[in-house]
Every structure is written in structure tokens, then in C-alpha cells.
Amino acid sequence: MREAEHSGAPPAAIGAPLPLRAGERGTPMSAVDRAWLRMDEPANLMHVHGVLVLDGAVSIDQARQLLAERLGRIPRFAQRVASDGSRTVWTDDTQFDIRRHVTEEELPDGGTDAALARVLSGHLGRPFDRAHPLWEYLLLQGFHGSDTVVFCRIHHAIGDGVALMLVLLSMTDLDAAGEARNPFVELLAGGSHAPYATVVAEAERLMPETMRLMTASAEGFARAGALRRGLGSVAGLGRLLARPADPLTRFKGELGVEKRVAWTPPIPLEEVRALARRLGGTLNDLLNSAMAGGLRRYLADAGALPDGCCFRAAMPVNLRPLDEMAALGNRFGLVFLELPVGVADPLERFERIRRNALALRRSAEPLVVHGLLSFAGASPLALQRLLVRIFGSKATAVFTNVPGPRQPVWFAGRRMRDIFFWVPQAGRLGLGVSILSYCGVVRMGVGTDAGLVPDPGRIVDGFTAELEALAARG
What is the CATH topology of the domain spanning 214-406+419-473? Predict the structure, then answer.
């Protein structure tokens, strides 16, 4: 387990997009992306933070050259947000400078994990300069003596987890020598010369789980038909509105500027997948159950576990169809998974979560939430904030799972050894759990509000203990 905190002066209030300059033109931002942009608050920024650990060192010049070539070809990464008076738009940043977006620092104290944690903490609450594109890459040199860590900061308005995983692939090489053709670069840049079938085949080889996400849920909703989707959405909206607010626990409350993060050691993917099968569920069922157990342990250790405690985690569901895999932006909805934190027995808790998740698989909730986000992004800001507050009351945490490449990839000639990340907590939530698999292992990142949970490492420790308890019973 590694833990970090953010401290320092509160960031300035988040301002509205700057107006277009004379002669500039913009492309309207989708309503859903605009909703994510407007969720930014000084105490709760909608930034995705990721860590890429490389084997060996990469210089700042190498990184800038690579990212200028790869990300520079994706229009969104050279655009800033602006206002044309009535709409929020993307417009080319005429002052774009790769040196502003790709910087470096030297890790102190020999580059230990603790030193990495401290340096990461200083950036968690820092908003982007909206006069420029909403992303940054920070090279942290000297990790464990000689390795480079790439700390990625990208605003959620640019894309969701599936979109950003494709961006990750576009800036990497598929072999050590960098000779293998990377079709993702051309795909995301637009006007790809690679046959579509080639891109799909390469994606299936590298990310079979992600491709299943893109074919199963999105195409399943498409097959349901417009009438069934419409009726299901009406019923789903009614159930969402009627659902009571989550109980008040130590995980809910007023948010502050300070944040904490923790992450797990690498977990062998096939071992936990085999354990999930033995228990009669999915990998997600297993990880969600162990995390619910970790949350239970945290509350119990603090003497703050209510009898029969049960709350929900908001979980993204992909709605991006396969033929739109090149598009950025946000194409997902949410389901609200009930977590029986009050159940002490690990197997009983696992079975309840398995049944709860199974009941949600044909739910129309993802379509309802996506529609509400679209409506919110097109509404006055005050109405959006009201909607976010209402639906934020229905959950206590955000749980997200992004399957990454199954095989290793390389960044500027260096093998990417490890990846983990932290998800933003929309709806003024103070707890986020992020799961990412890569090259045969799974990492979980836990992000919390420091005023609510000052020590998320204890949640990670509880998760590990619960996983071991399930393994002993399975």
C-alpha cells in the first residue's frame, strides 16, 4: 500500500470558459462533455489522474517529441475550451506549446514510493489553465533510482475511460523497437489509412476485455429497440428518483480541498479471475465484494459501522458502439450497485453483490443517467447543480473498472511496467475506487477526501485482507 495527501493553499475558483478571440471558430462541445466540464469545483475537480511506471529513464526531450507527434495529431489535445456567447466550444489553441503540457521534476529521497506519493499529492487539487488544452504530463525522474514515472492529468471532458485507454495506446509502441505499426494513432487522428478491420483486430489482441465492453453493453442496448429502451428509461428514471438517499456514514459529508490517495500492490489477474469463477461470480463481483469488505473494516475499526449498513457505488457502463471507437468524449451511463457493507460474512456479502450486479445488467439506468447528463449539460448551471446533487445523494462512492492492454506496451523505447489511476468523484462524492488491469496484473487506486477519510491506506489494507478471506473460503 502507498498513501499520499494533497495539501496547500486552496485553488482559485473555477472560472467560465474564456470567450473566442476575434477570428476564432469553435466546434460545439457535446452536452454530456459540457456537464463534466461544469462539475469542476475547487474541492472536487473532474480530473483523471494516472501513473505510468517505465523500466528505465526517458528524457524530457524524448517525451515532448513523442507526445508532440502522437497526441499532437489528435485535435482535442491541441484545443482549449471557449465560449461563443451561447455555447461552450472546442477551439484550436493558437498558443499551444508542448513545453507547457509536458514537464519534469526530480523525485527526492532516492525516488522511493513514499517520495513518489508526496510529489503526486502536490498536484491533485490543481485546476487546469482553461486558456490552454486540459491535459498535462509530468515526468518524475529517478523513481527507485533510475526509472521514470509519467504522471498523466486529463480532464474528464476530453473523454471517458474507454476513450482515454485508446489515447494511451496511441502514444505507445506495440513492440520494443517501435517498428510495429500502431493503427490507433491514425484512428484517433481521423482519416485513418488503416483498414477498420485491422484496427479492430489489433484492439482485440491487446485489449480483449475492453472490446467485450464495447460490443456487449452498447450493442445490447442497440438491439433492445427504441420502444423498449424508451419504456425502460421511463421506468428506470422512476426507480432512480424514488430511491432513497444513501445513509450518512464517514464516507459522506462536506468536501474540502485536501485529498488523499492510496493504491494496492499488483494483484495477479488470472488468480483472482479463477477465484471468482470458483465462487460462482465475475471478476468484478469479487473485487467489488472485497472492497465492500475493506470499507466495512474501516467503519468497524472506527466504531462507525451502523447496523445493517448498506450503501451504493455508482459504476460506469459503456455505451460507445464499436463503430464509434475513434471518437473521444463521454459515452457511458451509470448503474448504482448496492454494497451490503453491514454483512460480516465474506461469502454472503459476495453472493449478495453478485445478485445485485446481475439484476443491473439489463437495467436501463445507464441510458437514463446518460440522458440526464446530456439534459444537465444543456441546462442552466443552477439546474445542473441541482440534478447532480440529487443523484449524488443516491450513492456514496464511485467504482470504475477499465481493462487495459493484455500485452506490454512501450513508451519512448521503455517498457511500461505498471499502470494505476484515480477516478474523479462526480456528484460531490468523497470516495473513488479505480480498477485497472494491465499485462496480467490488476491495480486498485483509492481516492478520498482528506476531511472524511484521512487514511485510505487502511481501506486498501482491508481490501487485501478481505480478498485473502475469500481466497481461503474459495
Answer: Chloramphenicol Acetyltransferase (3.30.559)
